[in-house]
Amino acid sequence: MTTPHTDLPLQLVIITGMSGSGKSVAITALEDVGFYCVDNLPPELLESFVELEQSHNAPKVAIAMDVRSAASLPGLPRRLAQLQQRAKRPIQLTTVFLDATTETLVRRFSETRRLHPLSLRQAHDQHQVLTDAIEHERELLAELREQALVLDTSLIRPARLRSQIKDLLGATQAPMTLVFESFAFKRGIPMDADFVFDVRMLPNPHYEPELKPLTGLDAPVAQYLMAQPDVVQMAQQITTFLRHWLPQMLRDHRSYVTVAIGCTGGQHRSVYLVERLANVFAQEWSTRVRHREDEHWPGPASHAADPT
Q1: Using CA atoms in the order 162, 163, 165, 170, what is the torsion angle rounded to 10 degrees?
Q2: Which domains are delineated in the chain?
Q3: Is 287 helix (H, G, I), strand (E, B) or coil?
Q4: Helix (H, G, I), strand (E, B) or coil at 250
Q5: How far is it, in rounded angstroms, from Cα 232 to Cα 304?
Q6: Among 254, 62, 77, residue whose Cα is nearest residue 166
Q7: CA 278 to mean position of chain CA atoms
Q8: Which helix (H) or strand (E) holds 81?
Q9: What is the mean pLDDT of residues 258-286?
Q10: What is the pTM of this model?
């Protein structure tokens, strides 16, 4: 009979964020990859629960906490710091904050006809009651959001969210992970972006008939953009900027930095630059790539309706 390796760290994931942002989807994703998951654990029970799981030599635990524990949730960052100091076994902690725009959250609650945890009062204008509850929730969770890995779920489907959660947790083994994300300005700026670069002024492959149905992942588009001096200069300047500031962000104990590159439709220029930058920085940092609009890209025989 072998003795368990009790000196191995416990992988602890805290899933929190806005009500309606997808926490149940995230917890399901973690269950699929072997996490023992608990939903809506009161923060007051966190330390005793983790101690129990460590005594059982649990390797991976995920806990969902939300505004239903509103009275004690603002103190969660302090509790997590104390937990890591007092734990009998090392803890590899990741806090993930799921967020979405107020408009998206209002629509989700309206479609499901669920009651927001903070909108307990009845009123004639239910839309205003819901909006007020969401904004109050943002205030309560502001400190927690600042110290977490933020994931914007406004424009992603549940299947994509499950995939991103699994990918994110694989990335957090590194001291700091860079996420390069392409997006379309016409669909809004990602809420989880730490840096946003606008590349809409660059030459646009959309206006080249043979390139219009392609994306920045295709060689003809990449060749076209590589031949444009402005594109080359933009890539160099972003690289210089990030190389200067990323070490300082690491010293500030940042574990996850999202660099968003946006054009009009998120199909050509932003996609190409994200791929190029990710290849450059992969030699120095742990990197991940997201193309937020890939579900809207045209097929090989179709044409994009909007310029990118």
Answers
A1: 150
A2: 10-171 (3.40.50.300), 177-296 (no CATH)
A3: strand
A4: helix
A5: 25
A6: 62
A7: 17
A8: helix 76-86
A9: 96
A10: 0.73
Query: Distance between alpha carbon 133 and the CA centroid of its chain, in Å?
Result: 23
8-60 confidence digits (pLDDT tens) = 788 999 999 999 999 999 999 999 888 999 998 888 899 899 988 888 888 99
Phi, psi angles (nearest 5°) of residue 178? -100, 135
∠ CA 290-24-38 to the nearest 5 degrees? 120
Query: Regarding beta strands 149-152 and 36-39, do their DSSP bridges make them parallel or antiparallel, or are they unpaired?
Result: unpaired
Which of these, 155, 159, 37, lies nearest to 96 by C-alpha position? 37
Query: For the chain, how are helix, strand and coil distributed in percent, rounded to 5?
Result: 45, 20, 35
* Cα distances (angstroms) measured from residue 54 to each of 58, 84, 102, 181: 6, 12, 38, 36
CB neighbours of residue 184 within 10 Å: 20
Residue with tokens 């220029």: 269
Confidence of residue 306 (pLDDT cuts 50, 70, 90): very low
Q: Edge-to-edge strand order for the sheet containing 36-39?
A: 36-39, 60-64, 10-17, 91-99, 149-152
